[in-house]
Amino acid sequence: MNDADAILHAAEDVVTILRQHRVDAVVIGAVALAAFHYVRYTEDVDLGVNADLPTLRAVADALRRGGYAVELREPDATDPLGGVMDVSGPFGLIQVVSFAGRFPAVVDDAVRLSSAVVRVGSPLRLVPFPQLIALKLYAGGFKSKADIVELLARNPDFDLDEVRRTCARYRLAGLDELIEESGISIQ
Asked: Cα(96)–Cα(133) distance, rounded to whole angstroms?
Protein backbone atom coordinates (compact mmCIF):
# COMPACT_ATOMS: atom_id res chain seq x y z
CA MET A 1 0.00 0.00 0.00
CA ASN A 2 1.26 3.46 -0.91
CA ASP A 3 1.89 6.17 1.65
CA ALA A 4 -1.01 8.66 1.42
CA ASP A 5 1.22 11.59 2.35
CA ALA A 6 3.74 10.68 -0.36
CA ILE A 7 1.16 10.55 -3.14
CA LEU A 8 -0.48 13.79 -1.97
CA HIS A 9 2.92 15.51 -1.89
CA ALA A 10 3.66 14.25 -5.42
CA ALA A 11 0.21 15.39 -6.63
CA GLU A 12 0.85 18.82 -5.11
CA ASP A 13 4.15 18.94 -7.01
CA VAL A 14 2.35 17.98 -10.23
CA VAL A 15 -0.21 20.76 -9.67
CA THR A 16 2.61 23.25 -9.10
CA ILE A 17 4.21 22.25 -12.41
CA LEU A 18 0.84 22.43 -14.17
CA ARG A 19 0.38 25.98 -12.84
CA GLN A 20 3.82 26.93 -14.18
CA HIS A 21 2.34 26.07 -17.58
CA ARG A 22 -0.84 28.08 -16.85
CA VAL A 23 -2.97 24.98 -16.31
CA ASP A 24 -5.38 24.78 -13.37
CA ALA A 25 -6.42 21.41 -11.97
CA VAL A 26 -9.10 19.92 -9.74
CA VAL A 27 -9.04 16.58 -7.98
CA ILE A 28 -11.47 14.12 -9.54
CA GLY A 29 -11.76 10.34 -9.22
CA ALA A 30 -11.53 8.29 -6.04
CA VAL A 31 -10.17 11.07 -3.83
CA ALA A 32 -13.09 13.31 -4.81
CA LEU A 33 -15.54 10.45 -4.27
CA ALA A 34 -14.12 9.91 -0.78
CA ALA A 35 -14.53 13.61 0.01
CA PHE A 36 -18.25 13.08 -0.64
CA HIS A 37 -18.51 10.00 1.63
CA TYR A 38 -18.02 7.31 -1.01
CA VAL A 39 -14.76 5.49 -0.40
CA ARG A 40 -13.41 3.26 -3.15
CA TYR A 41 -10.20 1.46 -2.42
CA THR A 42 -7.82 2.84 -4.99
CA GLU A 43 -4.44 4.39 -4.33
CA ASP A 44 -4.13 6.83 -7.21
CA VAL A 45 -4.92 10.53 -7.52
CA ASP A 46 -6.74 11.84 -10.60
CA LEU A 47 -6.53 15.48 -11.68
CA GLY A 48 -8.91 17.04 -14.20
CA VAL A 49 -7.44 19.75 -16.44
CA ASN A 50 -8.01 21.63 -19.68
CA ALA A 51 -4.70 21.45 -21.49
CA ASP A 52 -4.05 21.10 -25.20
CA LEU A 53 -1.55 18.55 -26.48
CA PRO A 54 1.41 20.93 -26.83
CA THR A 55 0.90 21.99 -23.21
CA LEU A 56 0.54 18.39 -22.02
CA ARG A 57 3.78 17.54 -23.81
CA ALA A 58 5.57 20.49 -22.17
CA VAL A 59 4.23 19.50 -18.74
CA ALA A 60 5.30 15.88 -19.31
CA ASP A 61 8.82 17.06 -20.18
CA ALA A 62 8.96 19.27 -17.06
CA LEU A 63 7.80 16.38 -14.88
CA ARG A 64 10.43 14.08 -16.38
CA ARG A 65 13.10 16.70 -15.65
CA GLY A 66 11.74 16.71 -12.09
CA GLY A 67 12.45 12.99 -11.77
CA TYR A 68 8.99 11.58 -12.45
CA ALA A 69 8.22 8.72 -14.81
CA VAL A 70 5.62 10.03 -17.27
CA GLU A 71 3.57 8.39 -19.99
CA LEU A 72 1.40 10.66 -22.15
CA ARG A 73 -1.43 9.00 -24.04
CA GLU A 74 -2.56 11.30 -26.82
CA PRO A 75 -6.16 11.13 -28.02
CA ASP A 76 -7.38 10.12 -31.42
CA ALA A 77 -10.35 11.76 -33.14
CA THR A 78 -12.88 9.52 -31.38
CA ASP A 79 -11.42 9.74 -27.87
CA PRO A 80 -13.78 11.38 -25.32
CA LEU A 81 -10.75 12.80 -23.48
CA GLY A 82 -8.16 15.33 -24.60
CA GLY A 83 -5.26 13.18 -23.41
CA VAL A 84 -4.19 11.32 -20.27
CA MET A 85 -0.83 11.62 -18.56
CA ASP A 86 0.30 8.93 -16.09
CA VAL A 87 2.81 10.23 -13.57
CA SER A 88 4.37 7.49 -11.49
CA GLY A 89 7.02 6.84 -8.91
CA PRO A 90 7.47 5.17 -5.51
CA PHE A 91 4.42 7.14 -4.32
CA GLY A 92 2.10 5.39 -6.80
CA LEU A 93 0.15 6.80 -9.75
CA ILE A 94 -1.21 10.25 -10.53
CA GLN A 95 -3.37 10.59 -13.63
CA VAL A 96 -3.74 13.97 -15.29
CA VAL A 97 -6.88 13.80 -17.42
CA SER A 98 -7.43 16.57 -19.96
CA PHE A 99 -10.93 17.45 -21.11
CA ALA A 100 -9.67 20.17 -23.49
CA GLY A 101 -11.49 20.12 -26.81
CA ARG A 102 -13.94 17.53 -25.47
CA PHE A 103 -15.73 18.70 -22.30
CA PRO A 104 -13.81 21.78 -21.10
CA ALA A 105 -16.70 23.70 -19.52
CA VAL A 106 -17.04 21.31 -16.59
CA VAL A 107 -13.37 21.66 -15.62
CA ASP A 108 -13.46 25.44 -16.12
CA ASP A 109 -16.49 25.64 -13.82
CA ALA A 110 -14.98 23.23 -11.30
CA VAL A 111 -11.79 25.29 -11.08
CA ARG A 112 -13.78 28.52 -10.70
CA LEU A 113 -16.23 27.13 -8.12
CA SER A 114 -13.92 24.89 -6.09
CA SER A 115 -13.42 26.02 -2.51
CA ALA A 116 -12.45 22.77 -0.77
CA VAL A 117 -8.90 21.45 -0.65
CA VAL A 118 -7.59 17.97 0.11
CA ARG A 119 -5.73 19.24 3.18
CA VAL A 120 -4.99 22.60 4.76
CA GLY A 121 -2.53 24.62 2.72
CA SER A 122 -2.68 22.24 -0.24
CA PRO A 123 -3.06 23.42 -3.85
CA LEU A 124 -5.14 20.27 -4.48
CA ARG A 125 -8.66 21.61 -4.95
CA LEU A 126 -11.60 19.21 -4.95
CA VAL A 127 -14.11 19.17 -7.78
CA PRO A 128 -17.49 20.50 -6.53
CA PHE A 129 -20.27 17.93 -6.14
CA PRO A 130 -22.39 18.99 -9.16
CA GLN A 131 -19.37 18.94 -11.48
CA LEU A 132 -18.31 15.54 -10.12
CA ILE A 133 -21.75 14.17 -10.97
CA ALA A 134 -21.51 15.79 -14.43
CA LEU A 135 -18.08 14.25 -15.08
CA LYS A 136 -19.38 10.82 -14.11
CA LEU A 137 -22.47 11.27 -16.29
CA TYR A 138 -20.24 12.35 -19.20
CA ALA A 139 -18.02 9.29 -18.70
CA GLY A 140 -21.04 6.99 -18.91
CA GLY A 141 -20.70 3.27 -18.46
CA PHE A 142 -21.85 1.04 -15.65
CA LYS A 143 -19.11 1.97 -13.16
CA SER A 144 -19.62 5.73 -13.52
CA LYS A 145 -23.39 5.39 -13.25
CA ALA A 146 -22.98 3.23 -10.14
CA ASP A 147 -20.70 5.94 -8.71
CA ILE A 148 -23.42 8.54 -9.30
CA VAL A 149 -26.03 6.40 -7.54
CA GLU A 150 -23.69 5.94 -4.55
CA LEU A 151 -22.77 9.64 -4.43
CA LEU A 152 -26.42 10.66 -4.46
CA ALA A 153 -27.40 8.08 -1.84
CA ARG A 154 -24.54 9.16 0.46
CA ASN A 155 -25.27 12.88 0.06
CA PRO A 156 -29.08 13.05 0.32
CA ASP A 157 -29.08 16.63 1.59
CA PHE A 158 -27.28 18.01 -1.43
CA ASP A 159 -29.38 20.36 -3.59
CA LEU A 160 -30.61 18.11 -6.40
CA ASP A 161 -31.95 21.09 -8.30
CA GLU A 162 -28.41 22.49 -8.46
CA VAL A 163 -27.12 19.15 -9.73
CA ARG A 164 -29.91 19.03 -12.33
CA ARG A 165 -29.20 22.61 -13.47
CA THR A 166 -25.50 21.82 -13.74
CA CYS A 167 -26.05 18.69 -15.83
CA ALA A 168 -28.64 20.49 -18.00
CA ARG A 169 -26.17 23.34 -18.62
CA TYR A 170 -23.73 20.73 -20.01
CA ARG A 171 -26.55 19.03 -21.97
CA LEU A 172 -26.12 15.73 -20.12
CA ALA A 173 -29.06 13.32 -19.99
CA GLY A 174 -29.88 10.43 -17.69
CA LEU A 175 -29.60 12.03 -14.26
CA ASP A 176 -33.22 11.59 -13.17
CA GLU A 177 -33.09 7.82 -13.64
CA LEU A 178 -29.99 7.67 -11.43
CA ILE A 179 -31.61 9.89 -8.81
CA GLU A 180 -34.55 7.49 -8.73
CA GLU A 181 -32.22 4.49 -8.50
CA SER A 182 -30.38 6.09 -5.56
CA GLY A 183 -33.56 5.93 -3.49
CA ILE A 184 -33.43 9.54 -2.31
CA SER A 185 -36.57 11.62 -2.45
CA ILE A 186 -36.88 13.65 -5.62
CA GLN A 187 -37.10 17.34 -4.91
From this structure: 19
2 & 80 share domain: yes
Whether the model clears a pTM of 0.85, i.e. scores above it, the answer is: yes
- The domain total for the chain is 2
135 and 115 housed in the same domain? no
DSSP H stretches of helix in the chain: 4-20, 30-35, 53-65, 104-113, 129-139, 141-154, 160-169, 175-182
Q: Which of 7, 19, 32 is nearest to 125 (CA)?
A: 32
Question: Using CB atoms within 10 A of its CB, is residue 82 exposed (0-12), middle (13-18) or buried (19+)?
Answer: buried
Q: What is the pLDDT of residues 37-50, one digit of tens each?
A: 999 877 799 999 99
Closest CA to 124 of 43, 14, 37, 39: 14
pLDDT digits (tens, 9 = 90+) for 104-114: 899 999 999 99
